[in-house]
Every structure is written in structure tokens, then in C-alpha cells.
Design goal:
Strand content: 15-25%
Organism: Actinia tenebrosa (Australian red waratah sea anemone)
Largest sheet: 8 strands, antiparallel
Structural class: alpha+beta
Mean pLDDT: 93
Domain D-arabinono-1,4-lactone oxidase C-terminal: 140-398
Transmembrane segments: 123-142, 219-239
Protein name: L-gulonolactone oxidase-like
Number of domains: 2
Low-confidence stretches: 95-100
Number of helices: 13
GO molecular function, one term: flavin adenine dinucleotide binding
CATH architecture of the largest domain: 3-Layer(aba) Sandwich
């Protein structure tokens, strides 16, 4: 292809980009104004965007729904949204013994790689938790199964009682997690199991679920920004009103597993080895009872099995994720630095690792110690993207600070 043709393609790509676009994540804690914003419809368009960015030495990031409460997407260069490229290519139900999972990755040079557990295996295990640093994922082959219903039971008990029977509860159902409500010493546990029973009739009302459970809560937490000592009262009121009593329901799987995050918030979530769960939660409880600092509910506690993904917090180890929260009622920032600092220091002291998508203060040197396959994944990243086309400030901070 002649220089004139290349320049014409480059001009065409730049003309497709939108000026003045502002990306903001869902919680409105991070935003950026990219130089150009793209919504490609075809694989060729994506390729030309990457080649143009490479030639102009621009960073490229790909955004999704913006649910990540971190700056992982943010860039001042090129930003791509794949919503117009998104489509279901084929649906096929595989036998359970056929774990066929694969993806297509386009590198910064426009090369398309087929990746799976049997082809480009190391790239596959890197990209599954790749932070957008390895390339653009063009398509994914998921293993599907027929839709199913779930039976959900909830119950409450004191925190120490739950921690004393944790192993038993973990094996009592298909999916298990619980929420601790600071300043109450109580938890609400959720047990979910597959069922062939039909969905039950929904209970509740807009007045109770939305007016009380959302709008009044946001107002009360806003009021507590002026009178922080209100927080324990608010937490106790909502636990006793909404979460104390046992409940049951049956519904479609995605309706049961979906979780309402309510209004805007700051969150941080780290994973610790499962055997550290009780120690961490007792330390968090003791701090909230003695520090004089009041914290929002809930603290979410969930459990994830080990995997073989290089940059996964669960690489070769069963883990417990513990998520703390500070709401931003009506967009108002509530001081939370002391709570965050204690939490992060505690998690660091027990070998915890932060959720990649959530805000944290760790850098490359920390991750080199925490992840056995970190250097291997970084080597693969450098090989696929030697010029750093996909490296924004976030990626440089967590993967390349010491390189």
C-alpha cells in the first residue's frame, strides 16, 4: 500500500473519531476526556484505529458499561466503545464435559489471535484478566447451558455465630455469601441453590422497597454527613427493617444473582485466603467499635474458588472477597480516608490482594510479590504490545512502574 493510501486511511479513521466526548464511570468517581472517541462496527474499523494509534503514538483504551469504580479505562488519547460491534454470533449448547471456551484477540499491530486452553494457552490465561493491556477482545465463545431457576433463602445471625460455622455454610448450597452490618454486629446470609420449581410471586412494594429502601436511605446518609453519629442508628434501622427476618424466593437465575448497588458510592474490595476471613472481619468490627469512626453498611463477604488465570486474585487458591463501601448521597463526598486506610493496611498485613477493577493504592512492586505469574503475564504483554499502545496511567502504575 502506498504512502498516500496509508495517509488516506489514517485521515478516514481520524474523521470517524468524535471530539469532546467525556467518559464517566457509573459511580462518578473517575472521568476522562479522550482526544478521540470511537464506536466501531466492524473488525476492520478496529484494526485501522489501532494501526493509526500506533503510528501516532497514542494510547488506546476500550470502555464497557463504566461499572468499574477505578480509573482503569481513563485516557487522554483514544477511547473505544464496542457497543455497536457487539453481537451474538452463534448459540450452541455444549455437553457439560465439553468445556469449550475461547476468544479472539486483536493486538496493537492489528493481528488477530485465536486463544483458548489449547491454542495460545499462555496468552489466553493472561487475557482473561488482562486489564485491557494485551489487546482488544473481538469475540468470546462462552460455554452455555439451559436457563434455570434459583431458590434463595436469607437469614440473619450475629457475626461471631456466622464465623464459627463458616465452613459448614459454604458447603450448604450452590452459592453463599453474607453481608455484615457495621454497628449492629449482625449479618444477613444468603443461600442460593438450583431448583426446578417455578418462580414465586414477587413480594414487597414500591413504597417499601424504593421509597424506604432507596430514597429515604440516601436522604438519611446525606443528613449523617452533618451529624455522623446518626450512622449507627441508620444501620440498625435498616437492618431491623429490611434484613433481620428470614425470606425465601424462587426466580430466574439472573434475577436472583443480580444485585442492586443503590446510589453512587466509593468501594474497595480485597481478597484474602479463605482461612483469614474470620480474623479480618473481627478486626474490622473491633475497629468500628473503638475508633470513633462511623461506617456505612453493608460489608459484603463472598467466596470464590481457585482458577488458573495468571492475574486473577484467585490463582491456584480459594479466596474470600471482602468489600467495604462509602455512599455518596446526592453526589456528596463523605470522608472515608481513615476507614479505607485501616482496611487496606489490614488486608495488606494478611497477604490480601485488591480487586483489579476497584480503586486501590498498590503499584507494580506490590503485585510482583503478590502474584506468582505476574512477571510471566507482563512478559506476554510486552511481547504483544511492545510500544505500549494499550498502557494508560492505570496500567503503567500497576504493571510497568518498575520496568
Amino acid at each position: 500500500m502506498s504512502n498516500e493510501e496509508n495517509e488516506e486511511k489514517q485521515r478516514s479513521v481520524l474523521e470517524q473519531g468524535k471530539f469532546g466526548y467525556k467518559f464517566t464511570n457509573w459511580s462518578k468517581t473517575f472521568s476522562c476526556k479522550p482526544e478521540l472517541f470511537f464506536e466501531p462496527r466492524t473488525t476492520e474499523e478496529i484494526k485501522q484505529i489501532l494501526l493509526t494509534a500506533k503510528k501516532l503514538k497514542r494510547c488506546v483504551r476500550v470502555c464497557g458499561a463504566g461499572h468499574s469504580p477505578s480509573d482503569i479505562v481513563c485516557t487522554s488519547d483514544f477511547l473505544i466503545d464496542l457497543k455497536k460491534y457487539n453481537q451474538v454470533l452463534k448459540v450452541k449448547i455444549y455437553a457439560f464435559s465439553q468445556t469449550v471456551v475461547s476468544l479472539q484477540l486483536m493486538t496493537a499491530g492489528g493481528v488477530i489471535l485465536e486463544c483458548s486452553k489449547t491454542k495460545n494457552e499462555e496468552i489466553f490465561h493472561s487475557v482473561l484478566c488482562g486489564l485491557g493491556a494485551f489487546g482488544v477482545i473481538l469475540n468470546i465463545t462462552w460455554q452455555c447451558e439451559p436457563a434455570f431457576n434459583l431458590h434463595e433463602k436469607t437469614m440473619s445471625c450475629p457475626l461471631d455465630e456466622m464465623l464459627g460455622k463458616l465452613d459448614q455454610e459454604l458447603h450448604s448450597c450452590d452459592h453463599f455469601k453474607f453481608f455484615w452490618y457495621p454497628h449492629t454486629d449482625m449479618v444477613n446470609a444468603i443461600y442460593v441453590t438450583r431448583t426446578k420449581e417455578p418462580p414465586t410471586k414477587p413480594k414487597g412494594s414500591w413504597l417499601w422497597d424504593s421509597l424506604f429502601g432507596f430514597y429515604l436511605l440516601e436522604f438519611l446518609y446525606w443528613m449523617s454527613s452533618f451529624f455522623p453519629s446518626m450512622v449507627p442508628f441508620i444501620n440498625k434501622l435498616y437492618f431491623n427493617s429490611l434484613f433481620k427476618n428470614s425470606k425465601e424466593r424462587i426466580d430466574k437465575s439472573y434475577k436472583i444473582l443480580n444485585f442492586n448497588c443503590l446510589f453512587k458510592q466509593y468501594v474497595t474490595e480485597w481478597a484474602v485466603s479463605r482461612d483469614k476471613t474470620a480474623h479480618v472481619l473481627r478486626r474490622l468490627r473491633d475497629w468500628t467499635e473503638t475508633s470513633g469512626i462511623y461506617v456505612h453498611f453493608p460489608v459484603e463477604v463472598r467466596f470464590v474458588k481457585s482458577d488458573d488465570i495468571y492475574l486473577s486474585p484467585c490463582y491456584k487458591k480459594d479466596m474470600c472477597f471482602i468489600n467495604i463501601i462509602c455512599y455518596r448521597p446526592y453526589g456528596k463526598d463523605i470522608p472515608h480516608d481513615k476507614w479505607w486506610s485501616f482496611y487496606e493496611n489490614l488486608m495488606t498485613s494478611v497477604g490480601g490482594v485488591p480487586h483489579w477493577a476497584k480503586a486501590h493504592n498498590l503499584t507494580t512492586s506490590h503485585f510482583e510479590r503478590l502474584y506468582p505469574m505476574f512477571r510471566k503475564a507482563r512478559e506476554i504483554c510486552i511481547k504483544l504490545d511492545p510500544d505500549g499502545t494499550f498502557r494508560n496511567q492505570y496500567v503503567n502504575r500497576v504493571m510497568f512502574e518498575s520496568v
